[in-house]
Amino acid sequence: MAKSFASLLLLNSPPLLPPSSLSPSRHHLQPRISFPLTQSFFRVGTRTKPISASTAEAQSSVRKEDIIIIGAGIAGLSTALSLHRLGVGSLVVEQAESLRTGGTSLTLFKNGWGVLDAMGVGNDLRRQFTEIEGMIIISEDGRELRSFRFKEEDESQEVRAVERRILLETLANQLPTNSIRFSSKLAKIERSETGEKLLELEDGTRLSAKIVIGCDGIRSLVAKWMGLSEPTYVGYCAFRGLGFFPERQPFEPIVNYTYGRGLRAGYVPVSPTKVYWFICYNSSSPGPKITDPSVLKKQAREMVKNWPSELLNIIDQTPDDTIIRTPLVDRWLWPAITPPTSSGGVVLVGDAWHPMTPNLGQGACCALEDAVVLARKLSDALKLGPESVEDALRSYGSERWPRIFPLTIRANLVGSLLQWDNPVVCSVRDNVIIPKLVRLGPIMEHTNFEFEPL
User: Fold this and answer.
1) What element of type H or E holds 125?
2) Can you state the angle between helices 110-119 and 74-85, rounded to 10 degrees?
3) How many C-beta atoms lie closer than 10 Å to residue 223's C-beta?
4) Which pairing describes strands 263-269 and 274-282: parallel, antiparallel, or unpaired?
5) Measuring CA to CA, which residue among 184, 199, 190, 215 is closest to residue 364?
6) 63 with 48: CB under 8 angstroms?
7) In this structure, how many other beta carbons lie within 10 angstroms of the beta carbon of residue 177?
């Protein structure tokens, strides 16, 4: 239990319901840098061309792709970029009209930064975001319970909160022209007699692919098609926001946590002018969806009105368009019960496969890990021929499952413990567990991750 309580890390999962549009327009992103590409089974370049079909009508309406990635979030763009670095082309289809420009931030630890370095974007991002030196935990009455310095526990540790918008733009800008097709919401998946996957979009567009990579998030249509269950609500929700200080934010580069009964909150500097914050509270149901940001801000402020004033100040400095409220969910990938992550050339990555609660700060990091592992295995398989692809997809699932499943369970248990509202249990937590028993080093071992370079 001591280890679990020590996993006091930021809430940073993405919103459950990304924006969508049915507009048929298509937009392209221009690459910043041109990278030489090696030869592979799949080409890189313009990615849409007609395919043969049994009728003239089918010929004019179905477009053939080699690899289609569903979703232009962190999982989708990092998978596309990892493949691109290895000389493998792909088309990303995204339901929204553009990259997500709203939302808050996410926390990346050294495992996430290692993957971003391999993709060639780590240093670009480091220059924009503050390195976090440690963390402090206080009670709701302002009493300090414990503090840590990350480098003292692990000299190689690297922690930064990163704006989701900037991360997505950085990844997308490294892809070749024509790599992303926006306003392309998936409606249906079928498998043809030849084994290729037929995708129908809500605007009527039909696509065919040899490989489909589902990166379409928590409510993944690809995962549903493959037979995976809906994610499970875990009993608490989160407010999140990004405070903006035009002159300069006044906070030290540490994570600040406050713990109450069935309620916890935190904030961390993101950059010289921005501070990410969250409030996590127990709720028997997800509750109605609220889209009015002024109502969300009022509700969030009311929950912590008697807590230390720094958090209230940050909430007051938060632009309305960055405030969100989401019910938190996860999916436990039980062996021999949960369907496999790949089947017949279709495979899942990130939240589409393993949504987890954000209590370990590993949702985005694990999506980045998935991307680099899958890309390497696919690239190697394609050099041997298309018959090796299915083995590569199975190998990806077999390698990733032993890491993902324990992390998902652990994140869930940590959240359950930290959301306790029993006054006796909370007293033990605040006066014994956190001050005397918690050790940060052992419980951050999950941020160690080794992989084959791109």
Assistant:
1) helix 122-126
2) 50
3) 26
4) antiparallel
5) 215
6) yes
7) 12
Q: Where are the beta strands (DSSP E) in 132-196?
A: 134-139, 144-149, 160-163, 180-181, 186-191
Distance CA 454, CA 450 (A): 12
C-beta separation of 78 from 330 below 8 A: no
* Residue whose token pair is 């937590």: 429
Pairing of strands 144-149, 160-163: unpaired
| Residue 34: Cβ-neighbour burial (10 angstroms; 0-12, 13-18, 19+) | exposed
What pLDDT digit, counting tens, does each position of 320-361 carry? 889 999 999 999 999 999 999 999 999 999 999 999 999 999
Between CA 271 and CA 277, with CA 274 as vertex, the angle to 5 degrees is 115
pLDDT band at 41 (very low <50, low <70, confident <90, very high): very low
Query: How far is the C-alpha of 7 from the C-alpha of 411, rounded, in Å?
Result: 8
| Residue showing tokens 């003239």 | 56
Closest CA to 375 of 206, 171, 193, 167: 171
CA neighbor of 367 nearest in space, from 354, 386, 380, 385: 354
Hey, how many other C-beta atoms are within 10 angstroms of the C-beta on 449? 18
Burial label, 409 (beta-carbon count in 10 A; 0-12, 13-18, 19+): middle
Q: What are the start-end ranges of the E strands in 250-372?
A: 254-259, 263-269, 274-282, 324-330, 342-343, 346-348
Q: Tell me if residue 69 falls in helix, strand or coil.
A: strand
List C-alpha distances in Å: 258 to 2, 267, 295, 376, 421: 18, 9, 23, 41, 14
**Which residues pair with residue 330 across a beta bridge?**
232
Quote the CA–CA distance of 323 and 444 in Å, as a whole number: 29
What distance in Å separates the CA atoms of residue 26 and residue 182, rounded to the nearest whole number? 5
Dist. CA 281–CA 260, nearest whole Å: 10
pLDDT of 36 reads: 31
Using 50, 70 and 90 to split pLDDT, how confident is the model at 437?
A: confident
Q: CA separation (Å) from 373 to 119, 350, 393, 401?
A: 12, 12, 10, 12
- Sorted by sequence, the CB contacts under 8 Å of residue 86 that are 6+ apart come out as 38, 40, 375, 376, 379, 454
